[in-house]
Design a protein that fits this description.
Elements lengths: L28 H12 L3 E5 L2 E4 H17 L7 E5 L5 H11 L3 E4 L6 H11 L3 E5 L3 H7 L7 E5 L22 E2 H8 L14 E7 L7 E6 H15 L9 E4 L6 H13 L3 E4 L6 H8 L6 E4 L1 H8 L14 E4 L6 H11 L4 E5 L6 E4 L13 E2 L4 E5 L12 E6 L6 E2 L3 H7 L6 E9 L5 E6 L4 E3 L2 E3 L1 H9 L4 E11 L3 E10 L6 H9 L10 E4 L13 H5 L4
Helix pairs in contact: 1-2, 2-3, 2-6, 4-5, 7-8, 10-11
Length: 547
């Protein structure tokens, strides 16, 4: 173990960046949000489908929802699941949940019933704010979850526009509508609880080597710290009165949650919510209405925009912060992005367990370095070998991080927490990295077998467990393979028990049980899965296998 820590990266910081951040600037997220609502008042906070909400309106609506939740019996410390796409209801619901000191459980609205059930049961959430189009999944499993309160939100909520939403499942015909909860909350009085920095704000679920997702416990201090670290690292570029951030990344994802939803609310930005970023022509049409200054995305989305007609004709004169995260930014994509917009993509790195940002390339440094950047202020990163010793300079080692943004642990999983936390307070990321002499880090491998599809974590054990349960399958294994569109794709190897088994049947089985990005791109039938002498699956042999 290292006895003293060196921070060579500090010398590479921008001239107006700070080596330390005021990570305790606010006692909790609620205080930070409240200050922004007061300070920016009538300034537009969010825009969606052409409708807008001002900072004042967001604050008032969040208080109404908080009052309704409180009077519905939801108390401080209770878990409230939010299963919404990027619509105006999301920030209002989020800020309302935070105001009563409840713990927000972020849920992907595209989850299958099985995935949703695990998260609701594991978190113990008795209340869910859910998108109308996701109610079918909830209907299938709600009887096997703790959920008692269902609040349904639609695309048109808070827009004043007749936007049609997908139909609500018949099981929830009598469920509370989000708009009705807000209206009822107008006549109720909120009793604000005392929220300490160490109270939990979010449970951010992330996969693991067991295949079961775990809830990373993120405190109010974790989130406030990461926001203030970003602000200190970025410097003067964030002190603009005309900030417009384009939000296509899903707000339930930790990257967009911290950066787009919270950081830029604190900064007084106009936040343009893109509900369906897969409709790239519509996305480009919406972008054309704004002088965008900041954009966060994953490599696949950036590449998709570059190949969409009309994108190269947009006004990029104000665009000076473009952050790529969630997966590696490809140099070819960054080069083309610069050719079109005038700037390279700024790559960063983080995890759900770290609120999420640990490193970022210097904003304003118009160089593609192929690195994940420099550690944030007040963040220590060391590279260690399997025995926990620091590796020699330039050598690869497991990236281990310590800082105020690192979670206290996993929800109700002390053993899993102990596995990833070191005795000296570092979080073991499972990623293998190197550091150059200037302090720039590069990810060179993954200790875990995780597959990264369009910025989403896919864990082989989860897929294997589902396919192994299929009649006709003897055993199976999956790996990640390079893919031009998604960064990586899932390749599934199957050993047949039933000789007539076809790939189409395996794919159909997966489609009924797994979210779209987890479904294998190709299925390969083999005679046996390679294993070690003790029966451990040898994925490396599968990766080296010609197909």
């Amino acid at each position: 173990m290292s006895k003293s820590l060196d921070r060579p990266w500090l010398d590479q910081y921008a001239a107006d960046a700070a080596a330390t951040a005021d990570v305790d600037a606010y006692p909790n997220i609620v205080a930070m949000i409240g200050e922004a609502c007061e300070r920016f008042g009538e300034r537009t906070a969010y825009s969606n489908f052409g409708a807008t909400l001002s900072y004042r309106q967001v604050g008032e609506l969040a208080e109404q929802f908080a009052a309704w939740l409180q009077h519905a019996g939801i108390r401080q410390g209770d878990r409230v699941a939010i299963m919404l796409p990027n619509i105006l209801a999301f920030p209002v619901a989020c800020f309302g949940v935070q105001r009563i000191g409840a713990i927000q459980v972020n849920v992907n609205p595209l989850y299958t019933p099985r995935e949703l059930q695990h998260q609701l049961v594991d978190s113990g959430a008795e209340t869910i704010v859910i998108f109308a189009g996701a109610t079918g999944a909830l209907a299938e499993i709600i009887a096997d979850t703790p959920v008692k309160n269902v609040i349904v939100a639609g695309l048109g909520d808070l827009t004043g526009l007749p936007i049609e939403s997908p139909p609500v499942h018949a099981a929830f015909a009598g469920a509370t509508q989000f708009a009705d909860a807000l209206q009822a909350g107008q006549g109720l009085r909120l009793q604000p609880p005392a929220i300490s920095p160490d109270d939990l704000a979010f449970l951010q679920y992330t996969g693991g080597t067991t295949g079961l997702s775990k809830g990373a416990m993120l405190t109010h201090r974790n989130m406030v710290a990461n926001i203030m670290q970003y602000k200190a690292f970025a410097g003067a570029v964030l002190n603009r009165p005309d900030e417009v951030i384009m939000t296509a990344l899903p707000l339930y994802h930790i990257f967009a949650l911290m950066v787009n939803l919270l950081s830029y609310f604190h900064l007084g930005a106009v936040n343009v919510l893109i509900t369906n970023p897969r409709d790239l022509p519509a996305f480009v049409a919406e972008w054309s209405k704004w002088r965008v200054t900041t954009f966060t995305a994953v490599n696949t989305l950036l590449n998709g925009l570059l190949h969409t007609p009309g994108f190269d004709e947009l006004d990029f004169s104000g665009l000076d912060v473009v952050v790529g995260g969630g997966m590696a930014v490809q140099e070819a994509v960054s080069n083309r992005w610069k050719a079109v917009t005038g700037r390279h993509i700024n790559q960063g790195y983080g995890l759900s367990e770290t609120s999420p940002v640990l490193t970022l390339n210097v904003i304003g440094d118009d160089t593609f370095r192929g690195s994940i950047g420099l550690p944030f202020p007040d963040t220590d990163i060391v590279l260690r070998d399997e025995q926990g010793n620091d590796v020699a300079p330039g050598e690869p080692g497991e990236l281990c991080a310590r800082g105020p943004q690192v979670m206290p642990g996993y929800w109700q999983r002390p053993e899993a927490t102990a596995e990833v936390m070191t005795d000296d307070g570092f979080f073991r990321t499972g990623d293998i990295a190197t550091m150059d002499e200037l302090g720039y880090f590069r990810i060179v491998d993954r200790k875990k077998d995780m597959i990264l599809v369009s910025g989403f974590n896919v864990y082989p054990n989860e897929i294997e467990a589902e396919v192994a349960a299929m009649p006709g399958v003897l055993e199976c294994a999956c790996i990640g393979v390079p893919d031009d569109k998604t960064g990586e794709a899932v390749r599934l190897f199957v050993v047949k028990e039933e000789p007539s088994l076809q790939a189409a049947a395996v794919e159909a089985w997966c489609r009924n049980r797994l979210t779209a990005y987890k479904i294998p791109r190709d299925i390969v039938f083999i005679d046996e899965v390679p294993k070690s002498a003790v029966g451990k699956l040898l994925r490396r042999e599968l990766r080296d296998r010609p197909v």
